[in-house]
Specification:
The chain is an alpha/beta fold. It contains 10 helices and 12 strands. Helix 4 packs across helix 6 and helix 6 packs parallel to helix 7. The longest helix is centred in the last third of the chain and has 16 residues. The structure holds adenosine-5'-diphosphate (ADP) and magnesium ion (MG).
């Protein structure tokens, strides 16, 4: 099947003479979950930021469904139904849960046109039905929610946006294990509904459990990749070391 997202030999960095990503190529096939794992500082967030137009590649290309999107701004990518859930918050803390969703709804387009009022409220209610904890707090300020609930609202925004591709950076950092479990379940249902996902996670065990295809990034280079089975049956030596399994 054709990849929905492709990076071709991408080199990128924040400063002129320092490369963070070196010759990175990867493909995410439609309707699948790709996992990207690697140690702190490997360049995982930089990789997503390079896809999402925050960092412009110095070399190489980024393609969405075969069309070049290299260096396009986040603004344009949202219109192409690419969504990004950053590790940090993207919420407006002084707006209510509902208004955080409505501000986004007013910004979204379908078939090149802004969403109508009926569609906006339909999507809002759909998100609130899917996340009862948010529904119960729809008139509370986002900044007053717990960390887990704030993350749910981030995922609620993603659901509202109905992207074809969703980039997710370290969704469970700092959250309680039970909340993390719920987030992984949610990512799986999001994928089952047809959204293609590129997931960055330090939680190697979880990624190996449910990503269809896995990439390992070390010091800005892809050093291993393969289908989940490759990593489950005979975990790559490096991954074993990260997991603390003695060889
Ligand atoms: N805004 C920035 N300016 C300069 N260097 C940065 C910036 N953000 C990250 N880096 C550097 O890029 C490297 C990779 O960082 P990052 O992509 O955040 O790694 P990861 O997400 O895998 O932990 C690190 O050496 C980090 O210090
Ligand atoms: Mg990171």
């Amino acid at each position: 099947m054709k990849p929905l997202l492709e990076m071709v030999a991408v080199t990128a960095g924040y400063l002129e003479d320092i490369e963070i990503l070196q010759d990175v190529s990867l493909q995410v096939r439609k309707g699948t979950i790709a996992g990207l794992i690697g140690l702190n500082g490997a360049g995982k967030s930089t990789l997503i930021k390079t896809i999402y137009g925050f960092v412009r590649p110095k070399k190489g290309k980024v393609l969405l469904d075969g069309e070049e999107i290299t260096g396009l701004s986040p603004h344009h990518l949202i219109d192409r139904q690419v969504w990004f859930i950053p590790q940090e918050s993207s919420l407006f803390p002084y707006l209510t849960v509902e208004d955080n969703l409505l501000v986004l709804a007013r910004r979204l387009k379908a078939n090149g046109k802004p969403l109508g009022r009926a569609e906006r409220s339909h999507r809002l209610e759909h998100v609130l039905e899917r996340f009862p904890a948010l529904k119960a707090r729809r008139r509370q300020q986002a900044g007053d929610l717990s960390g887990g609930q704030q993350k749910m609202l981030e995922f609620g925004k993603a659901l509202l946006a109905q992207p074809r591709l969703c980039l997710i950076d370290e969704p469970t950092v700092g959250l309680a294990p039970l909340v993390a479990k719920e987030i992984y379940r949610w990512i799986e249902t999001f994928a089952e509904a047809g959204t293609t996902i590129l997931l960055i996670d330090h939680n190697v065990r979880e990624v190996v459990r449910f990503a269809d295809y896995i990439y390992v990034l070390s010091l800005g280079r892809i050093t291993a990749h393969g289908p989940r089975e490759d990593f489950q049956s005979d975990l790559h030596t490096q991954v074993r070391q990260w997991l603390g399994i003695n060889l």
